[in-house]
Amino acid sequence: MPYGYTGNILHVDLSSKKHWVEHPPENFYRTYWGGRALALYYMLNQMKPYTDPLSPDNLLIFAPGVLTGTPAPAMPRYTVCAKSPLTGAQGEAEAGGWWGPELKKAGFDAIIIKGASTSPIYLWITDGKVEIKDAIHIWGKDTGTSQKIIREELADDKIRVAQIGPAGENLVRFANIVNELKHFNGRNGLGAVMGSKKLKAIAVRGTKPTEFYNKKKIKEITKEIIKRIMDNPLSRNLREFGTVAGIASIYKAGWLPNNNWSTNNFKKGENLTAETYNKTILKGTEGCYACPIRCKRVAEINEPDLKVDPSYGGPEYEAVVALGSLCGISDLKYIAKANELCNKYTMDTISTGMVIAFAMQCYEKGILTKEDTGGLELNFGNKEVILKVIEKITHREGLGDLLSQGSYLAAQKIDKGSETFIHQVKRQEIPMHDPRVKTGVGLQYALSDYGADHMKAAHDASFKNKESWGVKEMKGLGILEPVSPIDIGQNKVTLFKILDIYWSLLDTLGVCDFGYVPRSVGTLDELLEIIRATTGWKPTWFELMKLGERSINMARIFNHREGFTSKDDTLPEVFYHNFKGGPLDGQGAINKEDFQKAVRLRYRMMGWNPDTGIPTPAKLIELSLDWLVKEVR
Ligand code: SF4
């Protein structure tokens, strides 16, 4: 068995209540490594095309990477994959926290779940033992209550619990999965897949540390990185202000998303800044397993009529904007409450904010009436109403039932021109980043196989001039010159190609993007050394980048099998128009033809058919994916 692995992959069939353990050979691990690549291997091998995402035939895969659980900074992550009930495409989301490292200590490199239970259950996995336990008594309960009950009944408060709340149980199409109440596999509705299997939780506890090839070396490198984490402004900023650090400058620059992307004229951005956050609602910071960056916010409010429980963390950038300015709301306390509700019910805050903002715009335009909303006044800026709508979505009551399907399906049902107010790619609502000021993010939105996403590649600002951290620190991957954030020519496509493959690699290894270049201070050399010291293998960056590329191609084939085409690699129309209001008023529109050319160029750079965007047989063979050639012939 290679170092860094347990050598055990757990298979669970919830229909038959059987489980078994597979022990793959070393070359399997050396080809797929873990995380998204390993998960995609099983998705492509064991799931038929056109499987209903909410049927027992969908797979649900939990896969840490080989680095998950090393003592080096920012290596806590694991992937969850399934066919997404929101997009109908490859579904994937990574989470940090503590659950991934604990699964490995409990004896498994991944869990492949199929089938569905007829009544609620949870999995209890400890030191190689697997039990399927009754969960009727916790079904319907919020995540804080369920976690407490599971830990009490198993008599161990160190058990790590990955679970769903009522939104997942009720099959909300953007329900997510949480561990430790505040670390999310956030997007693509994977919580609904868990709900469809009546799987409330996976509780794990292990006492057997993973064996690393050279632990002393990992510790030496860790010491060096930690010194820099404490000093360097990049990681210091993340620790002091978290992901909300950029809100003040985004607001001043004029691209803070506002009123469902209809204007850029939000007047109260000062109320949402990191400084305001730290002064008003911040209780403290938290981190993930072995990570000293501690970028996570914890919010607490203790007012007679408004309480926010710090157990559920605090809103990050995406939540502050999606549940805030996007809905015309500038009261951080209400945003923190909305975030707490999403977290304890397990709903993706981006999609939640986006479906509510969509409904608000429909209401203001007279497309939805008070009769449709059950009497709710759904105007932008109504901070009380957003809390009520979150409850309704969670429990699928009235308007909430419609919105629980995501904005794309909701607009189809409402009709009356409402589809002009949805902003999505492959049916997933866009995150809170504007491609008009960072075109590389536009390429991510269009080309992500799991629908619009902002975590597919590093963002443009890290490469904007010669002093940028990405340009200084990523020459080893061929990034020698800066590229303007608003460029959409060949240099941007080249940069995007490298960054996309690099982040795909990080998601395969279990590494948090905030720990290493270009977002933080861990270097490429240090990352390579940690990989070698963990596994005992001697990979080069050539092998590692091929690994990142391999899973991008596997995801592409998965979607090809599901009927997705190059027509689905789009950008929402709003970004082909100028900003409205604010400092950028009347400028910024992305040229549609230039953008489409960039998408085609990326196909060619990847070795895909330039018209269809489908990987060619030659590319698949080059990536040791010859078993997938039959899918493209
Ligand atoms: S940088 Fe933040 S999100 Fe990433 S591992 Fe560290 S604490 Fe977790």
Walk me through the structure.
The chain is of the alpha+beta class. 38% of the residues lie in helices and 13% in strands. The chain has a 6-stranded mixed sheet, with helices on both faces. A 6-stranded mixed sheet has the order 8-7-12-9-10-11. Strand 10 and strand 11 form a beta hairpin. Helix 20 packs across helix 22 (541-561). The mean pLDDT is 97. The structure holds iron/sulfur cluster (SF4). Iron/sulfur cluster (SF4) binds at residues 74, 76, 96, 287-288, 291, 293-296, 512, 514-515.
Concise overview:
The chain is α+β, with helices and mostly antiparallel strands. It is built from 24 helices and 18 strands.
Ligand species: iron/sulfur cluster
- Please tell me what the overall shape is: globular
Spans of at least 5 consecutive residues with low confidence: none
The secondary structure category is alpha+beta
Rg computed from alpha carbons, rounded to a whole number of angstroms: 23 Å
Helical fraction: 25-40%
| Percentage of β-strand residues | 5-15%
Query: Averaging pLDDT over every residue, what do you get?
Result: 97
Distance between the termini: 36 Å
Count of alpha and pi helical runs: 24
